[in-house]
Protein backbone atom coordinates (compact mmCIF):
# COMPACT_ATOMS: atom_id res chain seq x y z
CA UNK A 1 0.00 0.00 0.00
CA UNK A 2 1.25 3.47 -0.87
CA UNK A 3 -0.37 6.72 0.24
CA UNK A 4 0.38 10.43 -0.22
CA UNK A 5 -1.15 12.56 2.56
CA UNK A 6 -1.48 16.28 3.23
CA UNK A 7 -0.19 17.65 6.55
CA UNK A 8 -3.75 17.94 7.88
CA UNK A 9 -4.17 14.17 7.59
CA UNK A 10 -1.09 13.34 9.67
CA UNK A 11 -3.34 12.20 12.57
CA UNK A 12 -4.71 9.51 10.21
CA UNK A 13 -1.33 7.74 10.50
CA UNK A 14 -2.38 6.56 13.97
CA UNK A 15 -4.86 4.21 12.30
CA UNK A 16 -1.90 2.31 10.82
CA UNK A 17 0.21 2.08 14.00
CA UNK A 18 -0.88 -1.35 15.15
CA UNK A 19 -1.31 -3.38 12.00
CA UNK A 20 -0.02 -6.85 12.94
CA UNK A 21 1.93 -8.57 10.21
CA UNK A 22 2.72 -5.36 8.35
CA UNK A 23 5.87 -3.27 8.07
CA UNK A 24 5.67 0.42 7.24
CA UNK A 25 7.77 3.35 6.08
CA UNK A 26 6.73 6.98 6.63
CA UNK A 27 8.21 9.99 4.85
CA UNK A 28 7.97 13.71 5.58
CA UNK A 29 9.06 16.44 3.22
CA UNK A 30 8.21 19.13 0.68
CA UNK A 31 6.50 18.09 -2.52
CA UNK A 32 8.86 18.32 -5.50
CA UNK A 33 8.28 20.51 -8.52
CA UNK A 34 6.72 18.74 -11.47
CA UNK A 35 8.95 17.33 -14.19
CA UNK A 36 8.77 18.85 -17.69
CA UNK A 37 6.73 15.83 -18.85
CA UNK A 38 4.24 16.32 -16.01
CA UNK A 39 3.93 20.03 -16.86
CA UNK A 40 3.41 19.15 -20.51
CA UNK A 41 0.63 16.77 -19.42
CA UNK A 42 -0.89 19.73 -17.52
CA UNK A 43 -0.44 18.17 -14.09
CA UNK A 44 -0.82 21.00 -11.58
CA UNK A 45 -1.36 19.21 -8.26
CA UNK A 46 -1.55 15.89 -6.44
CA UNK A 47 -4.44 14.94 -4.17
CA UNK A 48 -4.36 13.67 -0.60
CA UNK A 49 -5.26 9.98 -0.52
CA UNK A 50 -7.32 10.49 2.67
CA UNK A 51 -9.23 13.78 2.26
CA UNK A 52 -8.66 14.52 -1.45
CA UNK A 53 -7.25 18.00 -0.64
CA UNK A 54 -4.92 19.44 -3.27
CA UNK A 55 -1.19 19.01 -2.65
CA UNK A 56 0.98 21.32 -4.75
CA UNK A 57 4.77 21.60 -5.15
CA UNK A 58 6.31 23.22 -2.08
CA UNK A 59 3.62 21.92 0.31
CA UNK A 60 4.64 19.74 3.23
CA UNK A 61 3.34 16.21 2.71
CA UNK A 62 3.60 12.73 4.17
CA UNK A 63 4.05 9.37 2.46
CA UNK A 64 3.08 6.01 3.87
CA UNK A 65 4.20 2.64 2.50
CA UNK A 66 3.08 -0.67 4.00
CA UNK A 67 3.85 -4.25 3.04
CA UNK A 68 3.44 -7.66 4.61
CA UNK A 69 6.26 -8.77 6.90
CA UNK A 70 8.59 -11.07 4.99
CA UNK A 71 7.87 -9.45 1.63
CA UNK A 72 10.20 -7.05 -0.11
CA UNK A 73 9.35 -3.43 0.62
CA UNK A 74 8.16 -1.04 -2.06
CA UNK A 75 11.03 0.72 -3.84
CA UNK A 76 11.51 4.24 -2.51
CA UNK A 77 8.67 5.74 -4.58
CA UNK A 78 8.57 8.62 -2.08
CA UNK A 79 11.66 10.07 -3.74
CA UNK A 80 9.54 10.76 -6.85
CA UNK A 81 7.23 13.03 -4.84
CA UNK A 82 9.14 14.50 -1.91
CA UNK A 83 12.35 16.45 -1.48
CA UNK A 84 13.90 14.18 1.11
CA UNK A 85 17.27 13.42 2.61
CA UNK A 86 18.46 10.52 4.71
CA UNK A 87 16.66 11.83 7.79
CA UNK A 88 13.15 12.21 6.40
CA UNK A 89 11.96 8.62 5.93
CA UNK A 90 11.63 6.07 8.71
CA UNK A 91 10.73 2.43 9.13
CA UNK A 92 9.95 0.37 12.18
CA UNK A 93 12.21 -2.52 11.20
CA UNK A 94 15.33 -1.15 9.56
CA UNK A 95 16.33 0.70 6.47
CA UNK A 96 15.76 -1.84 3.68
CA UNK A 97 18.83 -0.63 1.81
CA UNK A 98 18.09 3.09 2.17
CA UNK A 99 19.39 5.30 4.94
CA UNK A 100 15.99 6.27 6.32
CA UNK A 101 15.99 7.56 9.89
CA UNK A 102 13.88 9.82 12.09
CA UNK A 103 11.41 12.51 11.06
CA UNK A 104 12.70 15.90 9.93
CA UNK A 105 10.88 18.74 11.63
CA UNK A 106 9.77 21.61 9.43
How is this structure best described in words?
- With 106 residues, the protein is mainly beta.
- The protein has one domain.
- It is 5% helix and 31% strand.
- The protein has one helix and seven strands.
- It has one helix at residues 36-40; strands at 2-6, 22-31, 46-47, 54-55, 60-68, 82-83, 89-91.
- The strands form two sheets. Strands 1, 2, 5, 6 and 7 form a five-stranded antiparallel beta sheet that branches. The protein has a two-stranded antiparallel sheet with strand order 3-4.
- Strand 3 (46-47) and strand 4 (54-55) form a beta hairpin.
- It is globular, with a radius of gyration of 14 Å.
- It starts with a strand and ends in a 15-residue tail after the last strand.
- The model is unreliable at 93-106 (pLDDT under 50).
Distance between the termini: 26 Å
Task: List SSEs in N-to-C order.
Answer: EEHEEEEE
What is the percent of helical residues? Answer: under 10%
Helical run tally: 1
Structural class: mainly beta
- Strand runs, count: 7
Q: Please summarize the sheet with the most strands.
A: 5 strands, antiparallel
As a percent range, the share of strand residues is 25-35%
Mean pLDDT: 76
Unreliable sequence segments = 93-106
Overall structural domain count: 1
Global Rg: 14 Å
Global morphology: globular
Key terms:
5-stranded antiparallel sheet; 1 helix; mainly beta; globular; disordered C terminus; 106 residues; two-stranded antiparallel ribbon
